[in-house]
Design a protein that fits this description.
By secondary structure, this protein is of the alpha+beta class. It folds into two domains: about 220 residues, Bira Bifunctional Protein, Domain 2 (BirA Bifunctional Protein, domain 2, 2-Layer Sandwich); about 150 residues, no CATH class. It contains 15 helices and nine strands. A hairpin with a 6-residue loop joins β6 and β7. It starts with a helix and ends with a helix. Bound molecules: glycine (GLY). Glycine (GLY) binds next to β8 and β9. Glycine binds next to β8 and β9.
Length: about 400
């Protein structure tokens, strides 16, 4: 089954069960300044969980479903293993006060075992921690569906989700594991976490689920890694490096949502992804041409026709400009490093991040971090003095 069909089946399954299909929101969150990127399907719906907006009024439905574009850079170190990506699509079903645990769990079980024909290794439920009680109800529901199911219990670190950003809806989760990986996270939003991390019960309980499409495709296609799924087959033939494949794919989607490389925030993440990809291409004897071919392969995937038709000239142009700039910085930086100039000095003069310098020469990290700390303190003192004047 191809990824397109898998996405379609998920959305249709929920559409047939009273959910309205909602298009993905932008990767740049519209009304959540505390996060750089959209990291979950529920993010565009935060206001509906807390009663600040009315889904009945806006969508004529209390239950929604979507495949949301997401970027998560917190797992960036894990990119290159079997299942982590910085960009992915997140399939989800959402309910704002309509259905609750029984339906959410039954839907998930039916879709995974019947429609997708997968075998569940085990499920997990919240074990209770702090003021939040154990989720006995979910465990009972799972048992009533399938007595033989293995149910594991974990605390806040594993089976409690949210909020996205500094505050928002969150709650205990029940999670489904297939072929050794967590594929579906079902969140029971029943709390609001404030900035000071205190929890207050929500007036209306909500359901929020997240299933990474690429991971689901991996298990359905029995692929060894996410890079062996139909999303990546063409890309990997060109890139030959998981890092290049991941970082260029993510950059394409970030650029297509209007972000350009810069030294701060979203633009800085984009800059780092592109520069990293370029360094890797270089290692394999390649150049910008490889990156361009990878961009081409990303937007040629049948799922992303829109990018291909409307956004590709812009994407190629932005990547070209960024790499041209980087080449100059890199060349000059390299010359200095070869001459024995201190890595920290090279880093600040040429805008080369530590992780890139590390790939070129051995760096005394402790010394580097100390220098960085001093640099920060000096610049903030200078800033304060300027301010006083
Ligand atoms: N919002 C649920 C998840 O991202 O896993």
């Amino acid at each position: 089954m191809q990824s397109e069909e898998i996405r379609r089946r998920f959305l249709t399954f929920f559409e047939k069960r009273g959910h309205k299909v909602i298009p993905s929101a932008s990767l740049v969150p519209e009304n959540d300044p505390s996060v750089l990127f959209t990291t979950a399907g529920m993010q565009q719906f935060k206001a509906y969980y807390v009663g600040k907006a009315n889904a009945k009024k806006d969508f004529n439905a209390l239950n929604l479903t979507s495949s949301q574009k997401c970027v998560r850079t917190s797992d960036i170190e894990e990119v290159g293993d079997e299942s982590h990506l910085t960009f992915f699509e997140m399939l989800g079903n959402f309910s704002f006060g309509d259905y609750w645990k029984e339906e959410a769990i039954r839907y998930a079980y039916e879709l995974i075992t019947k429609d997708f024909g997968l075998k569940i290794d085990y499920v997990s439920v919240f074990s209770g921690e702090g003021n939040v009680p154990e989720d006995i109800e979910s465990a009972k529901i799972w048992k009533s569906i399938n007595q033989d199911l293995i149910i594991k219990k974990f605390g806040r670190k594993d089976n409690f989700w949210g909020p996205t950003g500094a505050e928002g809806p969150c709650g205990p989760t029940t999670e489904i594991y297939v072929n050794g990986i967590e594929i579906w996270n079902i969140v029971f939003n029943e709390y609001y976490q404030s900035e000071d991390e205190t929890l207050a019960p929500l007036k209306v309980k909500g359901v929020d689920t997240g299933m990474g499409l690429e991971r689901l495709v991996k298990v359905i296609q029995k692929a060894q890694t996410v890079f062996d799924t139909d999303f990546f087959i063409q890309i990997m033939q060109i890139a030959n490096s998981r890092i290049i494949a991941d970082h260029i794919r993510t950059s394409v989607f970030i650029i297509s949502d209007g972000v350009t490389p810069s030294n701060t925030g979203r633009g800085y993440i984009l800059r780092r992804l592109l520069r990293h990809a370029y360094i890797h291409a270089n290692k394999f004897g390649g150049d910008l041409i490889i990156l361009n071919d990878v961009i081409h392969a990303v937007i040629k995937h049948p799922s992303y026709k829109e990018l291909y038709e409307f956004k590709s000239p812009e994407i190629f142009k932005i990547v070209q400009e960024e790499i041209d700039k980087f080449k100059i910085a890199l060349e000059n930086g390299l010359k200095q490093l070869k001459k024995g100039v201190d890595p920290f000095v090279v880093s600040t003069s040429f805008g080369l991040p530590l992780e890139i310098i590390e790939e070129l020469v051995d760096v005394d990290k402790i010394k580097f971090q100390k220098q960085m700390e001093e640099h920060r303190q000096n610049s903030s003192v200078a800033g304060e003095q300027k301010f006083k004047k």
